[in-house]
Design a protein that fits this description.
Elements: H1 7-26, H2 31-54, H3 61-75, H4 82-93, H5 112-140, H6 143-175
Helix pairs in contact: 1-2, 2-3, 2-4, 3-6, 4-5
Length: 178
């Protein structure tokens, strides 16, 4: 089932994602206390997504696809996005010209503007490798394209469902804040 027994720790940590997320809904008065934990676990979901794309957690493709969709929900973006932007692009160019995630696009200075603008510029420049990857997967048909679409659906529908849950439990005004 698992490729490496050390991944048990990762899966236990990943099991905390829904527990902490749902705690916000169950006890909104604790949101201030839970926010640092949620931010930390959000960061962890990015690390786990990165690791999953370099070295899948499970031996079977089906379990890896399910886990990737699970991580996508908590990461907030389909985890397949790491493949064209990180695995196929960043590791090829390693922060040099041609790297869609290059850190020095605006400046080589480590300052607030560079840090602030990095996300927005990186998203813009990663769009083409991601769209190209999706087009190729669609052209080939089959499992990869279905997994990509499943991850998008899990993120979109899952977040809409969580918003609906917040509104249902706490009304319109408070439901948007949970």
């Amino acid at each position: 089932m698992l490729r490496y027994t050390s991944d048990i720790r990762t899966l236990l940590w990943a099991a905390a994602f829904p527990v902490v997320a749902l705690a916000h809904y169950a006890r909104p008065e604790l949101c201030g206390y839970l926010a640092p934990v949620s931010l930390y676990l959000g960061f962890c979901s990015g690390v786990f997504s990165h690791n999953q794309n370099h070295c899948p957690t499970f031996k079977g493709k089906r379990l890896n696809a399910i886990y990737a969709a699970y991580l996508s929900f908590f990461y907030g973006y389909p985890t397949f996005g790491w493949i064209p932007t990180h695995n196929l692009n960043h590791h090829k160019f390693v922060n040099k010209a041609g790297d869609a995630t290059i850190t020095w696009r605006i400046s080589r200075e480590n300052n607030l503007w560079t840090a602030f603008s990095y996300f927005f510029l990186s998203v813009y420049h990663q769009a083409e490798p991601i769209q190209s990857y999706i087009r190729k997967a669609r052209g080939k048909g089959g499992t990869l394209f279905r997994q990509i679409m499943t991850q998008y659906a899990v993120v979109a529908l899952g977040h809409v469902a969580m918003l609906a849950l917040g509104v249902w439990l706490h009304g319109w005004a408070r439901g948007f804040l949970v």
